[in-house]
Design a protein that fits this description.
The structure is a single chain. The chain is α+β, with helices and mostly antiparallel strands. The protein folds into 2 domains: 4-69, Ribonuclease iii, N-terminal Endonuclease Domain, Chain A; 77-150, Double Stranded RNA Binding Domain. It has 7 helices and 3 strands, in the order H-H-H-H-H-H-E-E-E-H. The protein has helices at residues 4-13, 24-28, 35-52, 55-69, 73-80, 82-94, 132-150, and strands at 99-106, 113-120, 123-129. A hairpin with a 2-residue loop joins strand 2 (113-120) and strand 3. The two termini are 17 Å apart.
Length: 155
Amino acid sequence: MINQNSLETPARNIELITDIITGKGEKENGGSERASTLSDLFEALIGAFYLDTDLETVKEFILKLVKNEFPDPQKLLLDLNPKGILQEYSQKKWNEPPIYNILSVSGPDHAPVFTVEVTVDQTSSTGTASSRKQAEIEAAKNAILIISKTDPDCF
């Protein structure tokens, strides 16, 4: 669970953004809104909370947040590693890996937008994001959602 995507959401939900003190340049560039800044802040908060209390108190706090964000444990896995889930399912079901293709790259050089398609057996889906890797993750997640309509046990 310790990655930027999984830590950014609870940081936003408990409104840590209101407690960030940044310099003028960072503020002007939206530094307190960055996912990396929020996830780092949340991780530091948990560490400080642990040092100030005990493991059991921190565990209760985190479990409450996780239950609010991810009431369905399967969805938690899908959000954390959709490419891995799709890879395992595809290998097991069809003995073939998913195939990822970049459909397009648009936007300026400093802010590209990638659209990627993933194909597994007869299913294909797309994902769009600011990096190829993130677009692949979105495409995999969308493919799993499509597959789960006919095979609810796919993940």
